């Protein structure tokens, strides 16, 4: 599964530009039949050993946060907007790469020439620019035009017990689903590799309107704030404590019964499960649970430090726990 | 003949430590040794490379080889994360979630922490202070203490990448670019021969107070010191009078604290040999080793030649390799003699 994760992370695809991620996933589907809808969601109907009593939809998003060129100045510098939520703190001084492979850097005025106030104020996207090395507008426009998107350069690095990469949010979820598909399911299950999660969960709802599932299980990465100086519930979740399940976040009030079932499965099967200790963030469940005729939603997340940056950091054992819980919960809901 | 780009890349990516034999020291020594009679190290770790041991006039070509970074000040028992402080004027605005390497008993890769969105408490535009940023190598306390000790160095991990037009970007162009220019000049002197006694010097501690240059210039007392460093390239927000465009060649410094005759001689050599250059005027100190070289010991005639650089002290320092070659050419022309 970690080879899958690495290969998926190395593919670039912001919201609305998930094509290459989707092509890769399709290449791994084997004999399973699939549909790509008008938004680009990839819907895979996996035949199980048995027919399911309830229709369960498992979902992870293919897109990653990134940047979109908005304007090219006379001196060949590129103004941009962010695609998805990227804090100003993690933008300055980063390398980024456009869809056609053009590399750029997010530059700024050197600290030496900055006033004390400037040194202590992060530069937001309105003050920053991307420099691809072009000598003027004409040269720049041969490589990048407004509307082209880019992602962080952030190589995949195996740190031993943990992995570090850009785009682990949510290629980890995609990899878990691919592994579930590859291993085969006990019951018929629908897998949705969704688009445009990072720009307001705009993709998954349309897939739901096609599928009409009874239950949904979203596989995600969620903020882990278990770093120095942060204690208790403010950590949101803790690396090494396993799969994170949510009772509520900024976009969804999760189904209480399903939530309890997930906890029970963890206990029975000896899978490490922890409860998200803050009402924060959101994921595709926000769109899913209120689409079609309403869906009973669950979210299983891997605790991710430094999310939405070039350096997503995840623990391998937590990813394995997410996989085990996702598989067991999906099968449980299918015949509940 | 090794290409400038290759030399630059190797020095940029070699970890630096304030010792006598960091990877940066070893890399420079290895590259320059074919062009030298003798190489020595002094008490502060400066690398002194004698290109010729005798000659009419003694000339030192010098570049600092130390790098900005961070130093490990604590290891957290609960998380295995490292507390850090600044070593040199790192740009704090570029630290959150940046990739780093820790130069412990082995090199560990990791990243700097960033404040999670739900804890930014409204002010998302405030820069985190160094004591609220930590290094995360993904290892537990018991694991990390096998490799990391207090005082170990932390560096940006941002390998050299090519942009359009052959521009290069990555960490530690400051001052691997200057080192590469001095090495290239040494190579040219070796090939062409020189009447002078020329020494290439790679100094330590420039970024934390120039102590290396103070010691080495006090010892060497050459007839002429030519210092090479990086300076500001033109970019939005930078005054035109304090910067030169990329691809404009060597930046020759005129400052009241440096002897003007040296600058004029450099300009003359540039004109004579068709080396592209601009003049960089400063009102006083230059924030380079030349500030201490010029009044080391009984005083030394000193010139400063710089390479234009974008995004200084960030992981994406950007330059054009042709500017490094221009500086190398000028150093060669100015030190060859006859």
Account of the protein in words:
The complex is a heterodimer of chains A (336) and B (338). Chain A has 336 residues and is an alpha+beta fold. Chain A has 2 domains: 232 residues, Zn peptidases (Aminopeptidase), CATH 3.40.630; 86 residues, Elongation Factor Tu (Ef-tu), domain 3, CATH 2.40.30.40. Chain A has 9 helices and 17 strands. In chain A, a hairpin with a 3-residue loop joins strand 10 and strand 11. In chain A, helix 1 crosses helix 5, helix 5 crosses helix 9 and helix 7 crosses helix 9. The radius of gyration of chain A is 20 Å and the shape is globular. The relative contact order of chain A is 0.20. In chain B, strands 1-2-12-3-13-16-14-15 form an 8-stranded mixed beta sheet, with helices on both faces. In chain B, strands 4-5-8-7-6-9 form a 6-stranded antiparallel β-barrel. Chain B has a 3-stranded antiparallel beta sheet with strand order 10-11-17. Chain B has 8 helices and 17 strands. The mean pLDDT of chain B is 95. Chain B has 2 domains: 229 residues, Zn peptidases (Aminopeptidase, 3-Layer(aba) Sandwich); 88 residues, Peptidase M42, domain 2 (Elongation Factor Tu (Ef-tu), domain 3). The longest helix of chain B has 20 residues. In chain B, helix 1 runs antiparallel to helix 2 and helix 4 packs across helix 8. At the A-B interface, strand 7 and strand 11 of A face strand 7 and strand 10 of B.
Brief overview:
The complex is a heterodimer of chains A (336) and B (338). Chain A is an alpha+beta fold and 336 residues long.
Secondary-structure map with pairings?
The complex is a heterodimer of chains A (336) and B (338).
Chain A: H1 2-9, H2 19-27, E1 33-36, E2 42-46, E3 56-61, E4 66-72, E5 78-83, E6 95-98, E7 103-107, H3 116-119, E8 129-131, H4 137-143, E9 149-152, E10 157-158, E11 162-165, H5 168-183, E12 189-194, H6 204-211, E13 215-223, E14 243-245, H7 256-269, E15 273-275, H8 285-288, E16 296-304, E17 312-315, H9 316-334
Parallel strand pairs in A: 3-12, 3-13, 13-16, 14-15
Antiparallel strand pairs in A: 1-2, 2-12, 4-5, 4-9, 6-7, 6-9, 7-8, 10-11, 11-17, 14-16
Helix pairs in contact in A: 1-5, 5-9, 7-9
Chain B: H1 4-13, H2 23-32, E1 38-41, E2 47-50, E3 58-64, E4 69-75, E5 82-87, E6 99-103, E7 107-112, E8 134-136, H3 141-144, E9 153-156, E10 161-162, E11 167-170, H4 173-192, E12 197-203, H5 211-220, E13 224-232, E14 250-254, H6 260-272, E15 277-281, H7 290-293, E16 302-309, E17 317-320, H8 321-336
Parallel strand pairs in B: 3-12, 3-13, 13-16, 14-15
Antiparallel strand pairs in B: 1-2, 2-12, 4-5, 4-9, 5-8, 6-7, 6-9, 7-8, 10-11, 11-17, 14-16
Helix pairs in contact in B: 1-2, 1-4, 4-8
